[in-house]
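Example record

One chain of 332 residues, shown exactly as stored in the release files.
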Amino acid sequence: MTTNVLWLQSAGCGGCTMSLLCAEDPNVFDLLEGAGIRMLWHPALSRETGAEARAILDAILAGTERLDVLCVEGSITRGPKGTGRYHILSGTGAPMLDWVRRLAHVARHVVAVGSCAAFGGVTSAGGNPSDAVGLQYEGTHPGGALPASFRAASGLPVINVAGCPTHPDWVTETLLMLADDSLTAASLDGYNRPRFYADHLVHHACPKNEFYEYKASARALSEMGCMMENLGCVGTQAVGDCNIRPWNGDGSCTRGGYPCINCTAPEFEEPRHAFTETPKIAGIPVGLPSDMPKAWFMALASLSKAATPPRIASNATADRIRVPPTLRKPKA
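Predicted structure tokens for this chain:
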């Protein structure tokens, strides 16, 4: 049976749609069609506009068009004063806030695409004058545009495919699992992110792991060393399989020499320090790797630095490999 998807874009940059279009082997259109997933409407990809698009929304609410998955990209603005009228869905005269609430209650599943839709994200940063929130979270706090108690017709809460932007495979794999009825409550982590990517850390398969093991640290963004100690990288704490399934077949933030900023997490947009700086107390990074006690980290770091091979120490502060690995002859 065909799985019907409606995609709405709310307060955001549209980056998750841009990312989705970068899906490869197969491309997103062939992938969805091959899985029997039908896009009822997407504001950037569909041909229907104006009255035609409004007719699709009305048919869904009237029950004459089945809505299996409601995808929302971008945060929901509740201002001013809870009316949502800072963002009117064009041509309808009604706030996006109202449309999302009405459509969510007739959808079998609701998916927040990206960290803005999941938790508020970048559009909720600062003073947040528009009162932007996620679908079912306001930062780390349950309850957003939809109450914490909300459950879609499937019995699941909002599925938070968090990321800024999302990896295209995270979105398509979620849709494939929903179409196959294989995504359950047990498939979601504590923030309702799909565990197929949220059970991993960005640290896993990071190309800088050899430098991390010896705590051989870069001092500037152009250098090859680990970026945790000085440059704000939190890949050892951030969930995501970005380095296991690289973007566009080859890329990730850390592969490109930029620190992981934990964009899959609520409130990543306001770390209270520059993204490329590591806050420290007495020289020890405040944010330690997941599941590692502070005393263990201090002991490990001390031993690791003492045992750092000259090759790794030299390359860590270089912008390319300065010292290659030692050639070893086979034993006779």
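Notes: Residues 84 and 285 are 41 Å apart (CA to CA).
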